[in-house]
UniProtKB/TrEMBL annotation:
<dbReference type="InterPro" id="IPR000719">
    <property type="entry name" value="Prot_kinase_dom"/>
</dbReference>
<dbReference type="InterPro" id="IPR017441">
    <property type="entry name" value="Protein_kinase_ATP_BS"/>
</dbReference>
<comment type="similarity">
    <text>Belongs to the protein kinase superfamily.</text>
</comment>
<feature type="domain" description="Protein kinase">
    <location>
        <begin position="1"/>
        <end position="292"/>
    </location>
</feature>
<keyword id="KW-0723">Serine/threonine-protein kinase</keyword>
<dbReference type="Pfam" id="PF00069">
    <property type="entry name" value="Pkinase"/>
</dbReference>
<keyword id="KW-0418">Kinase</keyword>
<dbReference type="InterPro" id="IPR008271">
    <property type="entry name" value="Ser/Thr_kinase_AS"/>
</dbReference>
<keyword id="KW-0547">Nucleotide-binding</keyword>
<dbReference type="InterPro" id="IPR011009">
    <property type="entry name" value="Kinase-like_dom_sf"/>
</dbReference>
<dbReference type="GO" id="GO:0005524">
    <property type="term" value="F:ATP binding"/>
</dbReference>
<keyword id="KW-0808">Transferase</keyword>
<feature type="binding site">
    <location>
        <position position="85"/>
    </location>
    <ligand>
        <name>ATP</name>
    </ligand>
</feature>
<keyword id="KW-0067">ATP-binding</keyword>
<dbReference type="GO" id="GO:0004674">
    <property type="term" value="F:protein serine/threonine kinase activity"/>
</dbReference>
<protein>
    <submittedName>
        <fullName>Receptor-like protein kinase</fullName>
    </submittedName>
</protein>
């Protein structure tokens, strides 16, 4: 297993680098196509939503957040969509997330200074629980398709909630012929970028990138030069499997407060999540069960004070 993992890590950098070029090319052409095409689908215009305005009921709820509920909807052409019904009565809904997004916390002015090791692990655990609900407890299962740190919102206690289901699809409703390539650079799984193959493991890959952000404090993609960039996966993979180097690349904010044993465990989970082959990635349920013992009980895990560092 260790040999296979090291081999996968060594080849991943080349794969990710080539995918960046493909992504940039696709994004430019996609924007041109959008500007030149004056037509839009019923779902984009909103015309096809009318039949569902009186059918927002508990049985169709995919998720619930501070801004309202997300419902499953099926259109006349048998395509599915996730529709968010905003809670207009709650004018202070946005204030429910006093700590903003995870992206703001890590990459904003504070540079992660408010995020201790335990808080980061709690955020990872909450995010994994949210994904597990979508993948395992929705019928049919739902793929978020745009998991990233800016779509993870944090309340005053740093409880994390998934947001922005605008690209979400049900597992039974998609194939590569009826979905436009979507997502965010740095979080998109290689197989989805290459041939449009979309599964729940695509979300697992994105979760792995978020986990690396929490561990390293780096952005998913960083510019090296005006026309050159590097992903966090490409940069980190060779060092994540080297226990002598790993502590040196961790976010300095948490470097002296973490337990090394726990760091190695979380890094191993992240490495598995961002494997180039989806079959080598774990299910989000397995990820969740790996994280629970690393989070203190008072934060939603099972780690006791006696076992804590």
């Amino acid at each position: 297993m260790a040999i296979a993992l090291i081999l996968a890590c060594s080849s991943l950098a080349a794969i990710i680098s080539s995918l960046f070029c493909l992504w940039v090319y696709y994004s430019k052409n996609s924007r041109k196509s959008t500007r030149n095409d004056g037509k839009s689908s019923d779902a984009e215009k909103g015309d096809g939503l009318a039949p569902f305005f009186d059918k927002f009921h508990q049985g169709n709820i995919l998720g619930e957040g501070g801004f309202g509920c997300v419902y499953k909807a099926q259109f006349d052409d048998c395509s599915f969509a996730a529709i968010k019904k905003l809670d207009c009565k709650n004018q202070d809904a946005e204030k429910g997330f006093q700590n903003g997004s995870l992206e703001t916390q890590i990459h904003g002015p504070s540079q992660g200074s408010s995020l201790t090791w335990d808080k980061r692990m709690k955020i990872a655990l909450d995010t994994a629980r949210g994904l597990e609900y979508l993948h395992e407890h929705c019928n049919p299962p739902v793929i978020h398709r745009d998991l990233k740190s800016s779509n993870i919102l944090l309340d005053s206690n740093f409880n994390a909630k998934l947001s922005d289901f605008g690209l979400a699809v049900t597992d039974a409703a998609h194939n590569k012929n009826n979905l436009k390539l979507s997502g965010t650079l740095g979080y998109v799984a290689p197989e989805y970028l290459l041939d449009g193959k979309l599964t729940d493991k695509s979300d697992v890959y994105a979760f792995g990138v978020v986990l690396l952000e929490l561990l390293l404090g780096r952005k998913p993609v960083e510019k090296l030069a005006p026309a050159q960039c590097q992903s966090i996966v490409t940069w980190a993979m060779p060092q994540l499997t080297d226990r002598s180097k790993l502590p040196d690349i961790v976010d300095p904010v948490i470097r002296n407060t973490m337990d090394l044993k726990h760091l190695y465990q979380v890094a191993a989970v992240a490495v598995l999540c961002v494997q180039p082959e989806p079959g080598y990635r774990p299910l989000i349920t397995d990820v969740l069960h790996s994280l629970i013992p690393l989070v203190p009980m008072e934060l939603g895990g099972t780690l006791t004070q006696a076992a804590a560092p």
